[in-house]
Amino acid sequence: xxxxxxxxxxLAMRPxxxxxxxxxxxxxxDDRLVVHALxxxxxxxLSAGFRLFLDxxxxxxxxxxxxxxxxxxxxxxxxxxGLDTLLERGLLVDAAWRDRLKDLRLAQPAHAAFSFERxxxxxxxxxxxxxxxxxxxxxxxxxxxxxxxxxxxxxxxxWHTQQRSLxxxxxxxxxxxxxxRVEIKGAVDIGDLALKAGEGIDSVVPRIRTVxxxxxxxxxxxxxxGGDHSITxxxxxxxxxxxxxxxxxxxxxxxxxxxxxxxxRTPPSPFDAVHSHASFMRHVxxxxxxxxxxxxxxxxxxxxxxxxxxxxxxxxxxxxxxLRLERAALLALVPADHDLYLTVDIDVVDPAFAPxxxxxxxxxxxxxxxxxxxxxxxxxRRLVGIDVVEVAGPAAAENTTAALAAHLLQHVLLRKFGVVxx
Length: 422
What we know:
The protein is an alpha/beta fold. The protein has 2 domains: 3-99, Outer Surface Protein A, domain 3 (Alpha-Beta Complex); 105-421, Arginase, Chain A. Helices cover 33% and strands 23% of the residues. The chain has 14 helices and 19 strands. Strands 7, 8, 9, 12, 13, 14, 15, 16, 17 and 18 form a 10-stranded mixed sheet that branches. Strands 5-1-6 form a 3-stranded antiparallel sheet. It has a 3-stranded antiparallel sheet with strand order 2-3-4, with no helix packed on it.
């Protein structure tokens, strides 16, 4: 088979039109290029021959046209190999995504969650990047109405995941003393969303939505750590966009574990911002992102919010009842034919167990009960996404709130991907 015969087949495996994302050239000589890919926050060293590709795709260019124009320089297979290198390293992307990715940047943190493989977000545009789970951080607390500090959540939780393994292997599940065999294939960490100086929440929301849509594009479990609770609205927006693009028809239920209902309050309350951690659920419902809302652990609901809840009719379980809720009653809240999204505001837990949070509310769940509720739901329903938000405090051993969040994520992933060995 000649190279000409190969071209139609291999072209079908790639986007028809590609473009280079913004980068900064840091060094260039006769042998090499050093570039900083801004979207993925990676410094890449390339051979000097890649200058041809960077120049050719500076503006959107059809792959077929590129191959035809440079057929005298190299065989099609060699040119395609060069394109694949740039695709995998996050410099070259499907032109259809350029406008949404050009201002997007994910910073590479000091620690990858659970030692997952680090990949650039642009790698998620490749069908070869499919895996079980995509982890990322959203260090945003510009929509908070309580004490700031949730921006430190991703760093603090990542620090504590270093003490916990999630590689393929056998684990003792302390909740029921069963040994579980876990096989997580291709779980990746794409970094933390980077904010611009002085940026407001209105411009952050679309970028969070884009990251979530890419993370869920191929059906991987979306796994995000905030940040304040305003991030859940765009996270769900991106997840739902990805599900619709894949033709996913199953209804979606969001289970919100929280001390507060996060429905908007009437003016002149300071909590009445358009994008606020205190009003994200109203946006989720108004946008029709989910088919069912279940709220568990509530213990701080003002009268105006109670009226809103009666109009929306979510299934509500207060903190006191949540302590006594039996397994069957919990599962009855989420129909078996619905997919499950978990959003966990760490203030659902009593401040005695999770003191580092912006709006602590006494009378919450003990940490073991949070783990138990999440375990039951993940075991019996199909989990498609989870976020843990409102974790504050330093990336240090004494931050027991971050330790709980890291343990919760490990616990959920163990239940999601674990097989019991009896």
